[in-house]
Amino acid sequence: MSSFVLRQDYNELAKSVYSISGAITTVFLFTRLWAKTAKFIGLWRDDYILIGAWASLLMGNGLAAAAPTVYGYNALDGLGRGAEVHCASVTFMYLAIALSKTAFSTTLLRLTGGWIKAGIWFIIILVWALNLALMVLTWLEVCDAHFKYSTLPTKCVSAATAIWVQAGNAACMLAADIILAAMPWFVTSRVQYIPDKERWAVATCMSLVGLSGLVGIGKIVVASYIPTHEQGKVDFTYGIVAYCCIHQGEAAIYIIAQALPILRVLLQGPLESKSDSPPVEFFATIKSTKTNSPAADEVVVHGSVELLQLRSGRIVTAQSEEGRAFRKAGVLKRAGVGQGREMPVFGAAHELHSGFRLRSPNAFSAPTLSLAQTHLAIKRSTQSQPKHKALSKFLDHDGKHDMSRSKQPSVPTVDLRGTSYVTDVTVGTQSIPLLIDTGSADLWIAPSSFVCLDADDNEVPQSECGFPVLLEGDLSGGLVPDQYFSVYYGSGQFAYGPYGLEDVSLGGITVSGQQIALPSTGFIKSFTGDYSGILGLGYPGMVAARDGMAARPALNNTDPFASYDPWLFSAIKRNLTPPVFSLALNIDGGGLLGMGGAVDVPIVGGYASTPILMIDLVGEARAESHFTFYTIIADDYLVNGQSFSNMSSSTNTTSGGRFPVIVDSGYSVNILPPTLVDLYYGALNTPPQLVDIGGSSILAAPCDGEVPSFGIQIDNHVFTMSAQELLVSSMNATINGTVFCGLGIQPGVEGAGALGDPFLSSVVAVFDIGASEMRFAQRSADRSAGVVAGEAAKGSFSETSTGSSTDQVATLREAFPHARFVFPTAARRRATIYKRAFTHQWFNNWKLDPPATDREELQAPGLRETTEYLHALLHEEIGLVPGGARNIVFGGLSQGCAASLTAMLLWEGEKLGAVVGMCGWLPFAERILEQVRGGEGDDGLEDESDPFARDDEGEGGETASSPAARAVGWLREELGVPCTASLSTPFTFQQIPFFLGHGVQDDRVSVILGRRASECLSSVDSRICWKEYDPLGHWYSGEMLRDLVRFVYRETGWNME
Predict the structure, then answer these.
(1) Could you tell me the superkingdom of the organism this chain comes from (predicted)?
(2) pLDDT (average), residues 357-382
């Protein structure tokens, strides 16, 4: 006999194998089940299949042990007693193998799609086909076996055939085991809501199923050594006993491997009681109809669908295995979901239990609460950027308006307006201006070979696309061979081409070998000529990558989506930046992008947080298990302080104030459900009109009208938008003599929306990818003027700090850690330049085209009020700050700088530490220079009516008729600010150092006006430090901040002694 043959005492050995495998699988399986029901949402389909596999394993173990023990069955002696029991035990063993592998494959099916899912289904079918064949073979008679037993009416099967069937099955199972063992590494790498460390741990545990491959090898060896009866060596029935033990090990390995990842859950913290927190965080019912869309070659399927959001953050249908598990367990009834209100999602009515708090899938890091490591100035383009076709369709703003819109209340057709914020990105060695967009993910740049098309797909000159810069030369990393870029925008624009690898730098963060898109062909218009592509900051689940060798247009493209890490996520994974960025936009242009934390700008109060939700808004399979947009659900909306949830009727398709909205820097307006927008419009003094503004149809109101207040409640915080953000002055048109401004809130579809520029201008928005949450803080109403008060009592600044530490200035708060920052708020005034719309501004003014002398009289009333207000504020701060006036630094940005300079010329208080101004101008500069030159009129004679034109010289050296005295006297008279001190004394501003910085490429306040302000101040004997920065627009840069900080250190003498 062969050496492997089991002896007479095989019963004891077999029972030991059965007992150990049964005990171990029981411990691991029930640990998994306990943790899932206690920590997560209960059992899913794969859990039930796994329970079936475990039960089959125990049945096989029990029957195999009972056959020899109870019935005295022994394969060695061929006695028939208990043979049926033995065959049944082997059948259950095969069933355990099939079910355990099916459970494992079902888990993978929930995490993948496309061809991978099809491959997994093939493995499932193969496993069942082969194991069913073996179950049948178990009950067939083996012709040349020692013991002949059959319950199936069929001819006998030869032992050789049976052996080859067994060996073939073992070989196929071995191949399946190898594939299934490798699959977790591939699948989990694409699931974003599992942190990297946990992802690899899960993949490693699940890959332990590969050990069953060793079992498969053992089965092949055993089968090959079982000789036939004719050779007179070993009976087939006797040899198959060895298979029983091997089968049990194969099934046990799969059960244990699927239970091991639960250790990840147990290590995350104490388990929550199911009774304390219902596992269903969100419940909704979609009620709609099925209709064919005449505007697209597709069927819009609605029907009656129930949605559940699980505690893990996933949103599933009630008809899924998760949903059925809830219903079967009665969890929904215990949670009281039936008491919920109606709420819309995706344009249909839903029910929502108001007590639930929505959550995002598992975060992979704690919230990042620090300030940003890098601040980047971004400039607003005057041209709307294209928005993705899929999102346009979701918001129903693609101009086609399918049948689903006809089911809703009548809503005017408004156009989707995108906002463009531009910054320079270094790609290779070139600096390329790109749009910053949180609503897309790819970084694409037009190369020098770009083929420009018109709307009819005809090739046109490259210049018609308007790209200011084209990417030259070859990429250092070459092209990506098996993926291509293809995007289609709602405006009809499109682009497609290859991907390549190149080093990409932004704000000092360099990602080497980053995958970027190089569209070779497209209909793309950069009308203003200020951008050459887009830098998407969205999730990888939004990339426009496709699998394939030849690039094709996205419209009607059936190539499967591909995946890769865009620039931001590459930087995060390589630990080049914390997993967070932030935005502080300005409604009238410009803003800041903060990398690694929150932008350091003035805020009111603290931050509110809300989870980023994994909701499929675009109908793509990858959105089921991947983040796409930065989607949140606000708690409520307030119109004139009244809660929308209280004001809306229960019959409305949007009620309760809760529906998903995306936070997208690419929209110039907020797009919200018509039910909510109608309530807001109803509070206007005059109904809005649909007008054409810049080629887009926008609902607008008279620019000089009042607008009701509007707030968004998130995490018990209400974020309000100013009148300037609700009635956008920069979007204006004149209709029949009335100037209309675009409303910052526009209607979309019921049940969804987008928070764009008006909202993002009112808050600091923190996109915390690591914590899977958005955080918001209300911004100060004015962002242009401020006071920095150094508090010497808490420690002052070191002389050594003016050295290397100031070379890397990130924020003023970091540079002056012991200073108190005061940011006053400008009054709300009518802005003539914005068609008399109300806005927060220090004074009214007309266009700032050099020399900016047109309609100067508009400035006087506001400058008078602002000067008196700022003087009172300075006196108050001087009394509060240790060290008094010398520890005050005063200044501002843009109009805040202009107001600060005017206030300083008329300041009669103590000498301040310093005055700083950025990108500003000096009102009445030309008129002041006239006074400095002698105050002569057109006839060249001195103006004798000037009461300040005195020749006497006061004690102290400054004559009343000196250039400074004439200039200050004229300015006081012009503004109506009385003088409280004698003009014979030196002016305070002549003792204060001024720092003025300006961007050479400033398109809002020309650098010519900045130079004129410096010249004017110098002419009245002020101490001026003038700096120009190129390239820089209407904002500040790191270099400007560094120079400013050095200036303040030098002039104030602050130290840390």
Answers:
(1) Eukaryota
(2) 57
